[in-house]
Specification:
With 81 residues, the chain is mostly helical. It has one domain. The protein is extended, with a radius of gyration of 17 Å.
């Protein structure tokens, strides 16, 4: 069962990555997929004191949280993906 799960997960990841590549290519932003060695956050400073990070896995979890934070914002909202 583990091998089947692994194979399905890898296939799904390839399908999603291919879709992102197509959309980025059509928008002229394919370079966004070229992460530096060590990943996108390599060498980045840690979050500043007073900030927090919460990992949200999928849309059903993330979208309501994003809406809530936008509604609670006092001055501006910065989104990164």
């Amino acid at each position: 069962m583990e091998a089947v799960d692994q194979a399905l997960g890898e296939r799904l990841e390839r399908i999603v990555a291919a879709r992102h590549r197509r959309r980025l290519r059509s928008a002229g932003q394919l370079e966004a997929l070229k992460a530096p060695a060590g990943g996108w956050a390599a060498g980045e400073p840690p979050p500043r004191p007073g900030n927090r990070i919460k990992l949200l896995i999928d849309g059903s979890e993330a979208l309501p949280a994003i809406v809530h934070e936008i509604e609670c914002a006092r001055s501006r909202v910065w989104l990164a993906g």
